[in-house]
Design brief:
The chain is of the alpha+beta class. The chain has 7 helices and 4 strands. The chain has a two-stranded parallel sheet with strand order 1-4. A two-stranded antiparallel ribbon has the order 2-3. A hairpin with a 3-residue loop joins strand 2 and strand 3. The longest helix has 23 residues. The model has no long low-confidence stretch (mean pLDDT 88).
């Protein structure tokens, strides 16, 4: 976006999917680039997805999709089915239990999601630095995991340590430090 010379960069952090989506092992679609942490807080783009069979197949089908509404429709429906199936696999949670994202707001966080969230924060901090270096105002907003008091009460009944304001406070600290 930098060639477009924006005045403001806005990141809307949605823990519902952003935390899973930074890791190919937890993302619904792993056929895309990901960032990996190397040597402390350095980031490197991992484009190894281009060697995957599903990516090569997608690239082979793309010219046909461009010229056929039927091929495009079939491909879109297949991808939607595949992503829904992958999302179910990622979200395996017992009924009434906290999701992996919600457990980050409690005392018993999933270690993979703790690492994913740390990578999210590293990426946000990098975005803030890149914007600052170009004189672009950077804004960070967080979407709450739960909105309703009934939902908060239900989650706290599942795990008394559940803190619905966790992401707001934690990302505020990140924003203030950036």
């Amino acid at each position: 976006v930098f060639p477009c010379e924006p005045d403001v960069g806005l990141v809307l952090f949605t823990p519902h999917n952003d935390i899973a989506d930074v890791n190919p092992d937890t993302a619904a679609d792993a056929c895309r680039p990901f960032f990996r942490r190397v040597q402390g807080d350095s980031l490197v783009a991992d484009t190894s997805f281009t060697a995957r069979r599903d990516f090569r197949l997608r690239e082979a089908i793309n010219p046909f999709k461009q010229h056929s509404a039927l091929v495009s429709l079939v491909t879109e429906r297949y991808n939607a089915w595949r992503m829904a199936r992958a999302q179910k696999k990622v979200q395996r949670v017992a009924p009434g239990a906290l999701t992996r994202e919600q457990r980050l707001c409690a005392a018993h966080a999933d270690s993979v999601f703790v690492e994913n969230y740390a990578l999210c924060k590293l990426l946000v901090a990098r975005m803030a630095r890149e914007c600052a270096a170009r004189g672009i105002r950077f804004e960070l907003a967080s979407v709450p995991l739960v909105y309703e008091a009934d939902d908060v009460a239900r989650l706290q009944a599942e795990d008394a340590s559940f803190d619905p304001g966790f992401f707001d406070r934690d990302l505020a600290v990140l924003a203030d430090s950036s």
